[in-house]
Amino acid sequence: MHPLAQELIDAYGGLERWRRFDTLSAHLVQGGALWGLKGQAGVLDDTNVTVHLKEEWASHSPFGAEGRRSIFTPGRVALLAADGTTEAELAAPRDSFAGHQLDTPWNELQLAYFAGCAMWTYLTLPFLLAAPGVETEAAGEWQERGETWRRLHVRFPAAIATHSTEQTLYVGADSLLRRHDYDVEIAGNTPGAHYMTDHVEVEGIRFPTRRRIFPRQPDGSALDAPLVVSIDLDDIRLG
Q1: What CATH number is given for 3-238 in this structure?
Q2: Of the candidates 170, 164, 135, 176, the residue with the CA atom closest to the CA atom of residue 152
Q3: Residue ranges per domain, the chain?
Q4: 152: how many CB neighbours lie within 10 A of its CB?
Q5: Is 17 helix (H, G, I), strand (E, B) or coil?
Q6: Which of 24, 136, 182, 189 pairs as cysteine with 2 (C-beta 3.0–4.6 A)?
Q7: Chain segment 17-41, per-residue pLDDT in tens
Q8: Residues facing 176 on adjacent strands
Q9: Which residues pair with 50 in a beta bridge?
């Protein structure tokens, strides 16, 4: 592991403390242009997410109607009714995005895959950097918002379902995350710049609670508009 990856993990509470927990849940309020563009406006505007910390698993509830929930794993997504019965499911869900571009609509199972994959990645970083097969290396400094940020290039193994194999983290002088770059492979490799602020501490672990995602240009700069996705978190719990 690169020393900057270790610095990040230590700043967020340390791997030893993180490994004491099995699950993480949070209340989400979400917005931005993406949901309407994909034909899924309103489904996950106000919801709760739970992720497993020792395997790649996530669930959003409610998923649309009250009591309805999703189940995400890399190999399967499903939608469950309030009584627990399976309404719909899809094996090998990532394959269903073949040929998709940014404006290609999603069905509900594809939305469940994207939301589960995204939130599992976001909520397990930076501790995910210590997972088997994850490679990290320095990527130089970056000037933005009157600060100098150190960049960490991350390469994920095929076993981890995430936005893209290659991603970049930006680290402030306080050793906290400022920005997270990736290309959303399942949406035509659309480049995003994901900003994180307003950290809180829960059980000795730090979490950014305000997330804003904007388009990223070829030179690495981010556009001020449109706001692609907004995510505000509260009621974060570790179990």
Answers
A1: 2.50.20.10
A2: 170
A3: 3-238
A4: 24
A5: helix
A6: 136
A7: 999 999 999 999 999 999 999 999 9
A8: none
A9: 25, 59
